[in-house]
Amino acid sequence: MTDYLSQELQQIREQGLFRTLRRIDASSDTETVLEGKKVLLFSSNNYLGLANDSRMKEKAIEAIKQFGTGSGGSRLTTGNLSLHEQLERDIASFKGKEASLVFSSGFLANVGIISTLMKQGDVILSDSLNHASIIDGCRLSKADTVIYNHVDMNDLEKKLQSVTSYQRKLIVTDGVFSMDGNIAPLPAIVSLAQKYGAMVMVDDAHSTGILGKTGAGTAEYFGLTNQIDLLMGTLSKSIGAEGGYVAASHSLIQYLRNKARSFIFQTALSPSVVAASIEGIRIIREERERSVRLLENAEFLRNGLKKSGFSLVDGSTPILAVLIGSAQDAVHFSKRLEEEGIFAPAIRPPTVPEGMSRIRLTIMATHRQEQLEYALHTFVKIGKEMNLLSTKNVMQSK
Ligand SMILES: *Cc1c(COP(=O)(O)O)cnc(C)c1O
Predict the structure, then answer these.
(1) Total number of domains in the chain
(2) What are 5-14's pLDDT values in tens digits?
(3) Residue 215: how many CB atoms within 10 A of its CB?
(4) Active site residue: 71, 104, 133, 178, which one?
(5) Subunit structure of this entry (predicted)?
C-alpha cells in the first residue's frame, strides 16, 4: 500500500534533496553542541539570546509552579489564563495597536488570520517570497490569490489594477524576508494600498525585537504603524519563547477571536511559554542595547565577507545570505564549515532559485567579537579552497 511513498522518497534522494534532522544537545546559544560536538551556532533565530536568559527561565518556572505545565483547554473554554490576557495587552502596547490575539504558533496565526478574513469574492496580493505559512493561509482561504514579483512595486501596481472588481483586497508581505534578509518596501506598499483601497498585513517574524526605535519591527521602522492593518509576528524568534500573534484594531481582533479556526480549536499555550514571552517583550523594550549590538555584529560580518570577495544578498538585517552557487557547492561549503566547528546550513532549491544556493547565517546579539572573527576567517579559508572569492568584489568594496 505504501510503495508509492518509498518510490517518491527514492526520487527525493536521487535529486539530492532528502532531508534529515540534526540533533542539538544543548541550548540555542552562540556555542552549542551538535550531535555531541561543540560548535559555534550561526543559524539560530534566537537573535537576542533571550531563549537562554536566566530571567526568562525564572519566569517560566514561576508560571509552572503557579499554573502547572499545561493550560488544559482552548482559550474559549477553560484554558484562558490571566497570563494570556496580560501577554495580549503587552503585545498590543508593544506594537502600538488597540488589541492583539495570541495563537499557538506564528504558522497557525498566518493560516488563521488570512483564511478567516479573506472570503470568496475577495483577493489576496502576496509577495512571491512570502513565508510558507502565508502561502498556506492563502490556500485555505476561499479568496483568489495573486502573486506579485518579489518587492516589485511596478508589478504590484499592475496586479492591483487587474483586480478592481473584487470586493476586498489584502496585500500581505514578510517585513523582513526570511531567506534573503531584505526589508519589504512598506512605504510604497502602503501608498499603493491607499490608492487602490486594499488592507495591508505585515509578517514581522524576523524584525520584531530588532528594527524600529522600540524594537516593534518594520512598521515602526518606517513610521507606518497606523497605516498597516495587521501586524503579525512570532514569539519564537527574538522574543525567545513560542507562539504567534497579530496586533490590530479591536474589531479585527474580536472578529478573529470569534472566527479563526486555528485559534478556536487549539489548546491555549502553556503557562511557561506565555510567562517567558511576557518577560521577553519586557526585556526587549527595556534593553534596546541588545538590538544595537545585534545589528553591529551583523554589519561587521557582512562587511568582512563582502570585502573578502563573497557575494551577499543586499540587506541590513541579521540574516546574511552568502551566495555560493550550485546546490552541491553550498552543501560542501556547509559541511566544511561544520568540520571547522561552525553550524550554518546550506539553503538549496526549491527554497531558493537554481544557481542561488547559499549559506544562510543568522547573527545573534550574544555573538562575541572573537566568534565573529573566527567565522569570517573560516569563510575566507573555505572560500579560497573552493575558489569562490571574486576579485571583482574585493576591488569594489575597497
Ligand atoms: C518563523 C516564521 C513564521 C512561523 O512562526 P512560528 O512561530 O515558528 O510558527 C511565520 N512567518 C515567518 C516570516 C517566519 O520566519
Answers:
(1) 2
(2) 999 999 988 8
(3) 24
(4) 178
(5) Homodimer.
